Amino acid sequence: MSKTNASYHAQSGDEVLQALSSRSSGLTDDEVSARLQQYGPNKLPQAPQTGTFTRFIKQFANLLVIVLIVAGVLTALLQHWIDSFVIFGVVIVNAIIGVIQEGKAEKAMDSIRNMLALKAAVIRNGKRRTLEGDSLVPGDIVLLEAGDKVPADLRLLRSHGLAIQESLLTGESLPVEKHTKAVSEDAGLGDRECLAFSGTSVTAGQGMGVVIATGATTEIGRIGGLLSDVQKLTTPLVEQMDVLAKWITGIILAIAVVLLLVGTWILEQPFTELFLAVVGLSVAAIPEGLPAVLTITLAVGVQSMAKRNAIVRVLPAIETLGSVSVICSDKTGTFTRNEMMVVSAVTQDAHFEVDGEGYAPVGDILLDGEPTAPQQHSVLRDMARLSALCNDAEIHSKSGQWGIEGDPMEAALLSFAGKVTMPDGGDFRHDWPRTDVLPFDSARQFMATLNHNHNGTGLVLVKGAPEVILKRCGSVLSGDGSHSDLVPEAWLDKAEALARQGQRVLALAGKLVSAEHTVLAAQDVDNGLCLLGLVGLIDPPRQEAIEAVKTCRAARIQVKMITGDHAVTAQAIGKQLGLAHGSVLTGTQLDALSDDELKQAVQSTDIFARTTPEHKLRLVMALQSLGLTVSMTGDGVNDAPSLKRADAGVAMGLKGSEAAKEAAEVVLADDNFASIAAAVEQGRTVYANIKKVVSWTLPTNAGEALTIIVAMLAGLPYPITPVQILWVNMITAVTLGMALAFEPTDKDTMKKPPRPRGQALIQPALVWQIMLVGSLFFLAVFSIYQYAIEAGHEVEYARTQAMNMLVGLEIFYLFFIRTMHRRSISLSGIRGTRVVWSAVGFVVIAQLAICYIPVLQTVFGTRAPDITDNLLIVLTGIVMLIVLEMEKVIRLNVYARVKK
Ligand code: ATP
């Protein structure tokens, strides 16, 4: 093991196994833990993380902060110590909020990354297991198949049509065919065809290899490959809002400079006061907290989606999910439970029913409703042998519970084989080792193996979709061992009868070959097979998928099932799921349609059967051409193009290949259709919350700005000082705005139609709201200030009340925004959420502190207000809520009428 990786390619597989003290049955647990100690986990070094201090410093590289710092320095030069102190205080608090927000965003991204950790199929203690990629050690035996990402550097020991795309290392974009023969010592990386390199992708075939290097010692580790880059938590919409915030900042600063110049040179007002007013205006009008709050909204969204088993790989998908108008999903495992069981076996002479539970290989075989001894039916035993050999799965029992490894359908076939061969449990895999394989491929819809027994007899065994297998059969096996002529139509009818009961049907066939026949080619299974019979498997729909289909339909989202299964099976399952249109379009029918015809057909069809991944791509494009936002699921390596093309590609986390996961925007942790519906609901929630944050922030800023501008133009004393505005914006507004990021899903979220694709966030309605609320804020703040002055209070008292009014109205407005699209004055509206009330509690306490604590009174220039005056603020808040509510009712009614 001390050898460099460089020489393994020049040695034979056996030599490498020996050098690594390994064997094809894999390492033992003790060996693994010793090696894990010695070599460490199979992880690439992590990109260096930015420290908290650096992150804190980085917060100052921001236009607004620089403006504030300049203002702070100038106020200090003008010897307005307190103002300067507050400005610097705000700058620091702002930076702290920035650091916290980035930390939260990073945590959200980290949790996603951990959920997307690479898995590897290995053989340890002679058994196949699926493990986290980072637990691999040198000497481990790894299995590869199309769609996998190679988890460590491997010396291949077996290769069946294995092809690997290695552009990551060699720059060569075409896949390289791999074999197991040693190559010359000085072969370059790209020519070491007996090695598979960590991080590269298997594009075709199957293979097995022994791990020769892990972690940083792999080829990718040596060239300094790091863990995937940290993604920035943002989406197009949030970026748009960032740009908007920057524009507002720029415009306000330009206005401020003009006002300063005009005020000083033309109106000849005192510079100091003007300067402070201009600083106040800038701070008031600029939505400084907005970007931070929006990032938190996204982080909260990413986390709540992950909690509901949808892992967002590509962040803009959060937004897209919210506007999805059609969800296309696979059937097996997504709509159904993927807990399969063979329930029927049909031979030339009989129709057997199979009993049992789960994957336990125990259960009765029934003939005409009565248990029968399977030994009496030789064809059944042949079917069992085929089921066990033409199969890559394993079943195992752990404290009485039967678990599986590999494809559930194949596991079900193993348990069927166990039931048939009871009690001797025919040790087929020992007696008939596999010589070669044509792995299952959803395009050809069958799998074939070549097995030889110890006397050299060769058997080609094939299982797959009945239509595909029957075409290749010349005869059928009878109970007495004789071969008779096959009538394909009769068998297709038998298959359809099983499918009509929702069963997934497989045909099993085989033929004998000579001992010398050791390579299985596609043409070996083209014809001349002998049919053994059919098996029917059940895979019931998931209860939660039935509910989710209902939810989607209420949300006016179309649901389409796109499956490789038989049309009749798909139709039976579709009916149980409650899909809208019961008719089925098969892959062959689809091929016969032109693009225009397909565009018509997709509108009235919800079930597509016997499809291949290429059909999925056409369907996505047809749906998109109808202006729909499409979500498409996939698991296989060939699904990558349609996942990429879909607006929201969704890959299966459990049974999906790495290739599908990499092409998808979202990965489902539980492969469940209900999780897609939940992700859409979360997507809608995030969008609604972003809208709430923006709708709450912009009008409050507008109200503050209006107050200062009017006072300035009218030459009146400012009803609220710049320092107070800074306080309101940075501390109270960010706290309240942040509460909106945590808003739970509204109960009506999935009762509304999807938002049109690409709809702008800032609609005329929002502009109107900014004007209306801004004016109401301005009116109330000015009025209370004037009222206090007229009541004979000093200016500081009046300003305190003006500031309190501003904060009070912000709180009331928050309750209004929370229920933007329905009645706000309701019990549930007032009850709010814990987050909302905590934010309100914090703000009220903070506000009381700066009004009543003497030191803070000095800092913020406040006076202790009377209780009655405080009540007046609450009363004004209630009046504002009523006014806004009335305006909403009128507006919604007018809107509804116009829409009619
Ligand atoms: P979905 O696309 O909804 O997941 P599916 O699993 O039925 O459905 P495919 O995996 O493309 O779709 O399978 C298509 C057909 O190929 C199946 O109906 C079955 O007849 C056959 N098939 C599936 N898996 C295997 C396998 N491991 N070996 C042999 N044949 C298979």
UniProtKB/TrEMBL annotation:
GO terms for biological process: intracellular potassium ion homeostasis; intracellular sodium ion homeostasis; potassium ion import across plasma membrane; proton transmembrane transport; sodium ion export across plasma membrane. Its main location: membrane. InterPro entries: ATPase_P-typ_cation-transptr_C (IPR006068), ATPase_P-typ_cation-transptr_N (IPR004014), ATPase_P-typ_cyto_dom_N (IPR023299), ATPase_P-typ_TM_dom_sf (IPR023298), ATPase_P-typ_transduc_dom_A_sf (IPR008250), ATPase_P-type_domA (IPR059000), Cation_transp_ATPase_P-type (IPR050510), HAD-like_sf (IPR036412). The chain crosses the membrane at residues 60-78, 84-100, 247-268, 274-300, 701-720, 726-744, 765-785, 797-816, 836-855, 867-884. It is found in: Cell membrane. Residues 7-80 form the Cation-transporting P-type ATPase N-terminal domain. GO terms for molecular function: ATP binding; ATP hydrolysis activity; P-type sodium:potassium-exchanging transporter activity. The keyword Membrane applies. It is a multi-pass membrane protein. Keywords: ATP-binding, Cell membrane, Magnesium, Membrane, Nucleotide-binding, Phosphoprotein, Translocase, Transmembrane, Transmembrane helix. GO terms for cellular component: plasma membrane. It holds the Pfam family E1-E2_ATPase. The keyword Cell cycle does not apply. It comes from the Bacteria. PANTHER family: CATION TRANSPORTING ATPASE, SODIUM/POTASSIUM-TRANSPORTING ATPASE SUBUNIT ALPHA. Belongs to the cation transport ATPase (P-type) (TC 3.A.3) family. Type IIA subfamily. This is ATPase, P-type (Transporting), HAD superfamily, subfamily IC.
